[in-house]
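Q: Sequence in, structure out?
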Amino acid sequence: MQRLQGIAVSPGVAIGEAVIFGNEGFRIARRFLPREAVNAELRRLDEAIAAAAKEIDLNRQRVAEQLGDDYAAIFSAHLQMLTDRKLREELEQMIRDRHYSPEYSVSRALRRYAKVFLSLQGDTMAERANDIFDIEKRLLRHLLGQRREGLGELSSEVLILAHNLTPSETANLNPKFVKGFVTETGGPGSHTAIVAEALDIPAVVGTGPFLTEVSGGETVIIDGDNGLVILQPDEETLARYRHEVDEHRQLAAKLETLRDLPPVTLDGQHITLLGNIEFPAEVEQCLARGAEGVGLYRTEFLYLMRDIQPSEDDHHAAYREVIEALGGLPVIMRTLDLGADKIPNFPMPDDERNPFLGLRSIRLALKHVEMFRTQLRAMLRASTAGPLKIMFPLISNVLELRRAKMVLSDAMEDLEEEGIPFSRDIEVGMMVEVPSAVVMMDHFVEEADFFSIGTNDLIQYTLAVDRSNKDVASLYTGSDPAVLRLIKMAIDSAGQHGRPISMCGQMCGNPMYTMVLLGLGLRTLSIVPAAIPEIKRVCRSVTIPQCEEVAARVLSLESARDVRTVLREELLKILPDQPV
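A: Exactly. Output:
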């Protein structure tokens, strides 16, 4: 049994068959052959070895002609490994005696060899491991051919193990078959993590290299609550986690009974629960969970899901679909919140060493005004379909907000001149996600109609923590007293000037924080649809004075650890069966 510590980005526990997706998208599952198919599969293996050997030899000849025999030696070594008699005998034994498929046999055998080399010290040994991975990929390409299975083509329940998953790959996962995933890279607050939470599947990222330690078909446990991945679990561990899965199911059934009940505290305070979405189809999940609207529509996925920039009509169609699906409930649409590196066919900044401090979000939009205006025109056009608010991300100074509002005014004038209808009384707000925005709230209240606290970035910028860096990920926490004090400052400032303020970061979707957030003064929370029942349950189990007492207590503490201890204790007092 082997335990890997990663970063928990989507809660829950999943137990199942591992499916390995490498950089080329191979899916290698443990598949057993009928006895009568063994000889045919052995012939297929020999054909793949012969084809791969021919390919390698051609590469060797080409390199030898252009660069000389010394440079061609690597291909000679590959050829020697590929045609090794002992390897062929081992593969045949796995296929003939264990009835493994050739694909699974190749992957299992070669990964075992690579693991041995990786365990040895020295760069030369690591290079030998890479040679073996190269041979594995080459053989698998010939074995799988057109039968290579992609992420969107799964037909049985599995757990995905990958080096990394792009947001679009994650978005294409089918929750019916993908019960959880693990990636070697990534961090909390990434788009991949956000999509995993929206899909309501357990996920752990940032484990570091581990794919050589596991083969497709093996049983794996993903503990999305604690950021643990367990390879080759023993029976005792399996039994313990299966019991935990049963407890999750029982809690989910209990939460289902709350669907039609209002989110009202024991002393009668109504808490508005809105949904966070990335795709128009998620509106259905929001409504099914009892959301009173959409508090954050992340429009950047229009850019991430295609190879070219979306047109104004592309934007308009998506926005209108969301508004119409909500049937009169409000939606807050956030403008583009990406770096230049994520936008297709877009010039990269010359010196972008730290993207989190560079040209992204509203800064990128204001530098490329035509792209920004295209999005704003589409939002304005869609506003005739129902209640819509527009929100700007990563505002760090008053001038940025004024410039963004000027581009919006220009878009309104353009539409008016063209005779295109739009709503003229759209509210315009901003995200509060950098400390400077909190400090300057007394000026921002004169410019913005509403505010939404984005804790994903606020935590990162307040604590100087790169949330995608595994080595410092433990410092990335909403429990830090500095973060809580900034949140209180923002809420108090907005309240003093009569401006609505909500929260849409991942922090408010965690039931551990619900009491302190209500105690700090928040009355509107925007969360992933799957988290709405849990948060509603907490709201219906507390009074506001009780929450204010918890908030006052934690604001006097000096460490995140102490804050977490108090918040867990208080949550368990009111809900003893709540996982924390």
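The first helix runs from residue 38 to 67.
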